[in-house]
Structure formats: structure tokens, C-alpha cells
Amino acid sequence: MKLWTHCSVATMAAGTAQPYGLIEDAALVVDGALLRWVGARADLPAELDAACTQRNDARGALITPGLIDCHTHLIYGGDRAHEFEARLGGATYEDIARQGGGIASTVRSTRAASADELKVQSRVRLKQLLGEGVTTLEIKSGYGLTLEHERKMLQVARDLGRENKLDVRTTFLGAHALPAEFADRSDDYVDEVLTMLPLLHSEGLVDAVDAFCERIAFSPAQVARVFEAARSLGLPVKLHAEQLSDSGGAQLAARFEALSCDHLEWLSEEGAAAMAAAQTVAVLLPGAFYFLRETKVPPIAMLRRHGVAIAIASDCNPGSSPCTSLLLMLNMACTLFRLTPEEALAGATRHAAQALGLNDRGVLAAGKRADFVLWDVQRAAQLAYALGANPCIQTIFKGETR
Ligand code: DI6
Ligand code: FE
User: Fold this and answer.
1) Ligand 2 mean position to 140 CA, how many Å?
2) How far is the CA of 241 from the centre of ligand 2 (A)?
3) Nearest in space to 68 (alpha carbons), one of 345, 399, 383, 335
4) Distance 317 CA to ligand 2 centre (A)
5) At what angle do helices 147-163 and 186-202 cross, to 10 degrees?
6) From ligand 2's centre to the CA of 97, what distance in Å?
7) Maximum CA pair distance of the chain?
8) What does the pLDDT look like over 9-23, one tens digit per residue?
9) Taking all residues of the chain, what is their mean pLDDT, rounded to a whole number?
């Protein structure tokens, strides 16, 4: 067993008297890939102390759960800097999408890239997330939009998980955008998505299913067909909902007991109530809000009032959030959305785990996964406070130094 002392631990456990579930002068015992004991150093049972063959002095570091980025489109070809310029010149995200740019442009470059090329480009982004203590990462498909290219994206995602000390959770986002070859035939493309899903699932490539419910993407009725198919395979669902308009996506997702609804700038009261009843997590994406220069803030007070758990993610993607810093997202969640630093950190740990349907991580407690980060900060709020700093000293993944 391994012991860490000379640290404070922000356990992020729910419902503790201390903010952040903080334990000062703490000890943490790891047995294999799991935490065996977490508490005040003074309370560490002598026999456990004696059983630790590896003893680590954390030199006053703050320890938090490994960060979880629960919404990314990490794998894609090319970039969209030209659209950034066009938007600064007055074009809107929706204008660009309707003119064949936007997601469709990334679909072209992703299809043109080989799996190896995608891997090389994605590794650069992954390295930055890993450097900030990310230990679990969700990656969506959705820039292939054919069986062959969706498979390629998901295989690259699985490969990135295998070649790094990191858990990758894959999400099939076949219903992300209407590919050009299906112009004006969106129901036919949904049929196509329904043929892709069971095949990709049978190849072990799909952990969850997502869709983009929006006037520039798919209607609630079309999303419902995709969700029915997911349900018949026993796969959990998530939804890009109410990002640019209120289409009732949140209520629809809640009907399917979605793990999460993501974006939610235009979420209605009915949507929030439905999410609360279904225990669907609200994943907020301040990077996309910032980068698209949105002005409608997600209804934070309403989410709090309904008791909806809030997660924060990078939404790393080339069009609306070319971002590879989850710490920066914590800051933006506070400055742009007025979350507290404690809510923001819970959003990238405990609630992010919930948004992925994982109950073995996201908090530091006996029996949970030994995924944690040592930070060179005195108090937890500093993680959300600094802009562009990276105080990560060390990351432990499944009990091992990364
Ligand atoms: N909403 C988003 O923010 C990303 N996908 C989605 O449905 C953006 C994807 C892109 O613009 O490439
Ligand atoms: Fe997204």
C-alpha cells in the first residue's frame, strides 16, 4: 500500500460540513488502483500506517480528485481559424453553418485525415488536458458522419485511452450535423445513424449516445428515434440541448433518463424541472459561450433551485470552443456564469463523473478510484482563480504516478 501525507485533501464528497470536503493535515492510503483510506493524519489507524510500503511526502500540496472533462470533441482534422475571423467580421455561427461551413467543414477535414493523422493532431490537445490533471476524458465522434469515419474517430479515441494513463469514455454523436450528401433528407440520415449505432456498439466502440438537438441540426422527433435505438441497446444518452434556442430538448432527454444535457443557455423552467426529476446533470460549457460571444447565460439560479447537479467541461472542438484547459473553464464558469469556485470544482469532479454515469470516481473516499492530483496551491479556490496558470505538480492515475 502507498501513503501520502503532509497534504490537505479536497475530497469533494457531497454534503460535508467543510467546503470542498476539505481535510487539513490529511493522510491518504492507496491499495492498488483504489483508495483504501482518506482522513486526518491523526486518525490514521496504526496498522494501516504500518502496512504502507511506499511513503510519499506531498510537501504541503492540495490534493483533489483527478479532473474529469465530461464533454469534448477532442478528435478532429483541421481547424476553423478562418471562421473565427469571419465571425469577428460579423458572420454568426448559424450563418456559417447554413453556408456549408461550421461542423460540415470539420467533417470534410476529418474524413480526409487518416486515423494516424487524427491521432497525431489529437495527441497535442490531449497532452494539454493531461498536464492539468485530467484522469477521465469523454470524447465524442460526430465529425465522420459515415460508418467508416465515425468508426475511425471512435477507434482513435479508444487508442488514445490505451496509450495513456487516462480513462477515455466514448460517445457516439452520429446525429451531430446533416452531412452534405444527405442535404434535405435528414430523416434518411437518421436512418443511417440507426444502422451505424448497433454496428459500432457491437465493436465495443460506444459507451454513450449523444445528439445535437437544434434548428441547424436535428429535431426532437429525430433525436427521439436515436434515443430509442440507444435504449434498445442498453446505452445511456446525453444531449446537446438548448444551446442556440429552446427546442424542448431537455424535456425529451429527461424522458430517456439522460445522463446529461449540455450547453442549456436557453433552458426553460419545464426543462430544468424535468432534468431534476430524471437526475440529469446540467453540463455547462463556458468556453463555447465565451468563444461564440453569447450573451444569454444559462439559468444558474433556476438549476440551483431545482437541485440539478452542474458539471463544467471544455467542449474542446474546433468551431465553438478550441480549448484544452479545464482549469480555464473553472475560471470562466465563475466569472461568466457566477458559479462559486467550489461549484466549479465539483463540476469538473463529482458532477462530471455523474454526467458520465461513473460512480467510482470524482470524489476522494475509501473504495473510490485512486485518481488524484497534487496542486501547488494553498486553497482550493486558487484552481478557479488564476487565468492560464497550471499549478499541477503530479497526477496519480489508478494508484500510479503518471
Ligand atoms: N455544439 C457545440 O458546441 C459543438 N457541437 C455542438 O453540437 C460545436 C461543434 C463545431 O462547431 O465543430
Ligand atoms: Fe459539444
Assistant:
1) 8
2) 10
3) 345
4) 7
5) 40
6) 15
7) 70
8) 999 999 999 999 999
9) 97
The torsion angles phi and psi of 36, rounded to 5 degrees, stand at -100, -35
230 three-class SS? helix
**Cα(266)–Cα(296) distance, rounded to whole angstroms?**
7
pLDDT digit string (tens) for 180-193? 999 999 999 999 99
Q: Is residue 5 within a helix (H) or strand (E), and if so which, with residue range?
A: strand 2-10
**Look-up: residue for cell 511526502?**
57
pTM over cut 0.90:
yes
Ligand nearest to the CA of 140: 2
Residues 6 or more apart whose Cβ sits within 8 Å of residue 223: 175, 211, 213, 239, 249, 252
Residue nearest to atom 7 of ligand 1 (CA): 212
CA of 356 to the centre of ligand 2 (A): 14
Q: Which ligand is nearest to the CA of 262?
A: 2
Q: Please tell me the predicted confidence (pLDDT) of residue 347.
A: 98
Mutate to test the pocket of ligand 1, among 141, 320, 329 (most ligand atoms within 8 A of CB): 320
Closest Cα to atom 10, ligand 1: which residue? 319
Pocket test for ligand 1, best of 70, 75, 103 (most atoms within 8 A of CB): 103
Q: Output the ligand 1 site: residues, CB below 6 A.
A: 73, 102-103, 106, 176, 212, 240, 243, 288, 315, 317-320
CA geometry: angle 273, 326, 129, nearest 5 deg? 135
48 CA from centroid of ligand 2 (Å): 44
Q: What is the pLDDT of residues 210-269, one digit of tens each?
A: 999 998 899 999 999 999 999 999 999 999 999 999 999 999 999 999 999 999 999 999
**The pLDDT of residue 258:** 98
* Nearest ligand to the C-alpha atom of residue 318: 1
Write down the pLDDT at residue 254: 98
Check if the beta carbon of residue 349 is closer than 8 Å to that of residue 362. yes
Mean pLDDT value of segment 262-288? 98
